[in-house]
């Protein structure tokens, strides 16, 4: 059973991750993790110390748990550039801060750190409203570029084909064909997926003004320590190979593309054909599993359909089942995940322990630590 | 120049005079909206997220909002939407007619439309038009409000809403002035009573330890006078906006104060707005059995987990549980299995 320790500052509740039911739990690992997250409250998604929180928690876990692999995300600059009106200098300071936190972790932990930029942010120039369609267009809060389309009429498709903001409309069959899926793989794909042009973004669910948005990049930067990788799905096997000789950390620096990447890098493909991942769950999962994840997670799925009272993993966002084949599962030695991406690090990485912020729509609720494996630890 | 009759600020309005909320003007000698049918966002959620715990449990709803507010709460959670000039927001607002909004709700399988991002009285005519179409479509209408409308405005809200969650934030004039930007709580207390006579009312109180926590007993006494079945949601304050640097209130301390204040006076008391709260289940007022279970994900993220009612009553002692509307069919099926 995976346990989740929910820390709301000076107050904790431990629950069964799958059911959400409270559990009385103790033991060397539970006590260690509970103490750690209790001592290290999350400062908030746009707080200047947010990325330092990731490094600090990861370093303490390195000291106390002695992992061989760490999956880290550094996302403060992603939130800040996206939702705050920053000057160029402020933007650069935020990005520099992220890389400084990564560098500090590398220096103090002794890990070989492979850094991946998840893609550049561009100015949010033109909002796109798809509400006038006969069918239903569904976009999500954190996905600005793609929408799912359901029950589209012929007039809808013609309108979208001539829409100045629309870059692409793909039918489900086209997506399945592009990624080599069978009909059975399409259950969570929308009937059509709509992609908007650069600088355009889909409106609807985001309360806050968007200043910058992810521009799904055909390629993303990967630090050269890893060796050659052609696609983001090649990162995983290369990491596993590197783990034979080194303690390794994968650091995903969010909202950063090739132009802002300060380290020696190579590029790898960030999708296939017309589809490129936005920073987020689908991209993380593709990296973690070493295979494309568009069938499981895409910006057009109607997640609200799964939001029923019997939904499993109630504290895991829109996940209703645990992904399989994640990188943490493939590593026999101890592994950790730490990040300021909420509610999915513990699902997508599969690492023994995951410490992540519990923030919803930038509202700072605290920290969630998930313990998937207790059997590798007897105390320290 | 005329006086606005929607909220108790009763601001002067003219062709270019917009009042405190900046959402109304009077170009033709009457109160008119400046930005009718303009929405900041909408999202699909469940009634528990508003929160409504005793109205259409588990029902999917379309959560909507506009811009602007008539309060100046120091801890406003949506300041980036409601504290900025609505005129400057129009480039990113959705222009959706009442008919199209109701159509969206229906396409998404929603049972209700709930206005909850900002204060609904700043867009009352738009809300009325949506409600008229929603009623024809058989949809429930709800809102979250600070309760500072005039009697006329409150009557208009009561006439169109099936459920209202009123925020009773504090009682003393000092608190109202310093933390909310209004002179006193009188209109809010009056409106809670008025609304409770015409529609389903739940009440929410964000608790700031040491600031309004000493008023909890008095608030409970007032609510008990309105009716012991009024569900009361005590919120652990989430420090935002001007209070972002403040400490989070202690869950243990505030929880104890809430419990002590409400014991034996109100039948349905909840303490939440933080992850993993243990105080989100509905307990039978007769025997204390947990008859509705929920998960708390903090700020606007509560979920229905299970319903154990037998025909609207406690299966153990038979005591009726106060609910407005039916339980979402999926939940009822789950409860029966």
TrEMBL record, chain A:
<protein>
    <submittedName>
        <fullName>Uncharacterized protein</fullName>
    </submittedName>
</protein>
TrEMBL record, chain B:
<dbReference type="InterPro" id="IPR007197">
    <property type="entry name" value="rSAM"/>
</dbReference>
<keyword id="KW-0004">4Fe-4S</keyword>
<keyword id="KW-0949">S-adenosyl-L-methionine</keyword>
<dbReference type="GO" id="GO:0051539">
    <property type="term" value="F:4 iron, 4 sulfur cluster binding"/>
</dbReference>
<dbReference type="GO" id="GO:0046872">
    <property type="term" value="F:metal ion binding"/>
</dbReference>
<feature type="binding site">
    <location>
        <position position="73"/>
    </location>
    <ligand>
        <name>[4Fe-4S] cluster</name>
    </ligand>
</feature>
<dbReference type="InterPro" id="IPR016431">
    <property type="entry name" value="Pyrv-formate_lyase-activ_prd"/>
</dbReference>
<dbReference type="InterPro" id="IPR027596">
    <property type="entry name" value="AmmeMemoSam_rS"/>
</dbReference>
<dbReference type="InterPro" id="IPR034457">
    <property type="entry name" value="Organic_radical-activating"/>
</dbReference>
<keyword id="KW-0670">Pyruvate</keyword>
<feature type="binding site">
    <location>
        <position position="69"/>
    </location>
    <ligand>
        <name>[4Fe-4S] cluster</name>
    </ligand>
</feature>
<dbReference type="GO" id="GO:0016829">
    <property type="term" value="F:lyase activity"/>
</dbReference>
<keyword id="KW-0408">Iron</keyword>
<keyword id="KW-0479">Metal-binding</keyword>
<dbReference type="InterPro" id="IPR013785">
    <property type="entry name" value="Aldolase_TIM"/>
</dbReference>
<feature type="binding site">
    <location>
        <position position="76"/>
    </location>
    <ligand>
        <name>[4Fe-4S] cluster</name>
    </ligand>
</feature>
<feature type="domain" description="Radical SAM core">
    <location>
        <begin position="54"/>
        <end position="278"/>
    </location>
</feature>
<dbReference type="Pfam" id="PF04055">
    <property type="entry name" value="Radical_SAM"/>
</dbReference>
<keyword id="KW-0456">Lyase</keyword>
<dbReference type="InterPro" id="IPR058240">
    <property type="entry name" value="rSAM_sf"/>
</dbReference>
<keyword id="KW-0411">Iron-sulfur</keyword>
<protein>
    <submittedName>
        <fullName>Pyruvate-formate lyase-activating enzyme</fullName>
    </submittedName>
</protein>
């Amino acid at each position: 059973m995976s346990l989740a320790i929910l820390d709301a500052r000076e107050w904790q509740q431990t629950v069964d991750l799958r059911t959400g039911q409270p559990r009385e739990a103790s033991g060397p690992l539970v006590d260690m993790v509970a103490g750690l997250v209790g001592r290290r409250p999350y400062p908030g998604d746009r707080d200047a110390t947010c990325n330092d929180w990731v490094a600090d928690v990861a370093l303490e876990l390195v000291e106390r748990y002695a992992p061989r692999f760490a999956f880290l995300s550094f996302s403060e600059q992603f939130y800040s550039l996206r939702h705050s009106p920053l000057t160029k200098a402020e933007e650069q300071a935020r990005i520099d801060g992220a890389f400084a936190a990564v560098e500090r972790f590398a220096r103090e932990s002794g890990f070989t750190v492979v850094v991946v930029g998840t893609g550049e942010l561009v100015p949010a120039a033109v909002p796109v409203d798809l509400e006038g369609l006969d069918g239903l267009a569904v976009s999500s809060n954190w996905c600005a570029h793609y929408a799912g389309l359901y029950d589209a009429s012929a007039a809808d498709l013609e309108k979208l084909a001539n829409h100045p903001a629309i870059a692409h409309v793909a039918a489900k069959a086209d997506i399945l064909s592009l990624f080599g899926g069978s009909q059975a793989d399409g259950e969570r794909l929308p009937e059509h997926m709509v992609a908007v042009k650069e600088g355009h973004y889909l409106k609807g669910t985001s309360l806050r003004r968007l200043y910058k948005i992810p521009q799904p990049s055909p390629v993303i930067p990967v630090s050269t320590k890893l060796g050659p990788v052609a696609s983001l799905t090649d990162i995983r096997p290369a990491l596993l190979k590197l783990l034979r000789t080194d303690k390794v950390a994968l650091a995903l620096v969010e909202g950063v593309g090739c132009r802002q990447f300060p380290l020696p890098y190579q590029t790898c493909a960030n999708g296939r054909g017309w589809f490129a991942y936005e920073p987020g769950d689908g991209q993380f999962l593709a990296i973690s599993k070493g295979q494309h994840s568009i069938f499981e997670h895409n910006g057009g799925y109607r997640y609200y359909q799964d939001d029923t009272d019997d939904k499993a993993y109630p504290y895991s966002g829109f996940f209703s089942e645990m992904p399989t084949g994640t990188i943490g599962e493939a590593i026999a030695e101890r592994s950790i995940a730490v990040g300021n991406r909420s509610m999915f690090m513990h699902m997508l990485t599969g690492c023994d322990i995951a410490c992540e912020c519990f923030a919803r729509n930038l509202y700072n609720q605290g920290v969630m630590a998930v313990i998937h494996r207790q059997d590798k630890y007897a105390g320290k | 120049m005329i006086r606005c009759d929607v909220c108790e600020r009763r601001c002067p309005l003219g062709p270019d005079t917009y009042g405190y909320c900046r959402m109304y003007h009077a170009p033709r000698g009457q109160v008119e909206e400046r930005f009718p049918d303009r929405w900041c966002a909408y999202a699909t959620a469940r009634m528990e997220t508003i929160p409504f715990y005793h109205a259409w449990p588990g029902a999917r709803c379309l959560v909507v909002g506009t811009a602007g507010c008539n309060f100046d709460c120091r801890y406003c959670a949506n300041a980036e939407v409601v504290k900025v000039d609505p005129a400057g927001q129009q480039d990113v607002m959705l222009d959706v007619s009442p008919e199209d909004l109701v159509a969206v709700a229906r396409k998404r399988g929603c049972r209700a439309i709930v206005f909850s991002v900002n204060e609904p009285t700043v867009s009352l005519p738009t809300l009325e038009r949506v409600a008229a179409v929603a009623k024809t479509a058989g949809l429930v209408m709800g809102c979250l409000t600070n309760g500072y409308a005039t009697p006329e405005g409150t009557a208009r809200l009561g006439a169109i809403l099936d459920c209202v969650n009123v925020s009773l934030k504090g009682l003393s004039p000092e608190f109202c002035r310093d933390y909310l930007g209004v002179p006193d709580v009188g209109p809010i207390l009056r409106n809670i009573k008025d609304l409770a006579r015409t529609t389903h009312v739940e009440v929410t109180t964000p608790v700031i330890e040491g600031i309004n926590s000493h008023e909890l007993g008095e608030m409970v006494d007032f609510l008990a006078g309105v009716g012991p079945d009024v569900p009361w949601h005590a919120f652990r304050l989430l420090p935002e906006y001007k209070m972002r640097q403040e400490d989070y209130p202690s869950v243990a301390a505030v929880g104890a104060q809430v419990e002590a204040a409400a014991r034996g006076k109100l039948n349905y008391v909840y303490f939440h707005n933080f992850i993993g709260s243990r105080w989100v289940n509905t307990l039978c007022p007769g025997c204390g059995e947990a008859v509705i279970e929920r998960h708390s994900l903090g700020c606007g993220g509560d979920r229905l987990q299970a319903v154990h009612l037998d025909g609207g009553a406690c299966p153990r002692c038979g005591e009726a549980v106060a609910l407005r509307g039916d339980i979402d069919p999926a939940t009822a099926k789950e409860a029966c299995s």
